[in-house]
Design a protein that fits this description.
Blueprint (H helix, E strand, L loop, with lengths): L1 E3 L4 E3 L7 E10 L2 E7 L7 H4 L2
Parallel strand pairs: 1-4
Antiparallel strand pairs: 1-2, 3-4
Length: 50
């Protein structure tokens, strides 16, 4: 599990396209989770076509 800084919720690790930081973390109800960004937070080709 990791805490998504974009969604502000936890996600299971292993989804394609996610970024989980090695040094960052976030506490949720006294549980420490690695910090990261899920696929929804990352730019896509459609977003960049602009």
């Amino acid at each position: 599990m990791y805490y998504c800084l974009f969604c502000k919720t936890t996600h299971p690790k292993g989804a394609a396209g996610e970024i989980v930081f090695k040094t960052g973390f976030h506490f949720v109800q006294s549980v420490r989770y690695s910090a990261g960004l899920c696929k929804a937070a990352l730019p896509t080709n459609a977003n960049m076509a602009g």
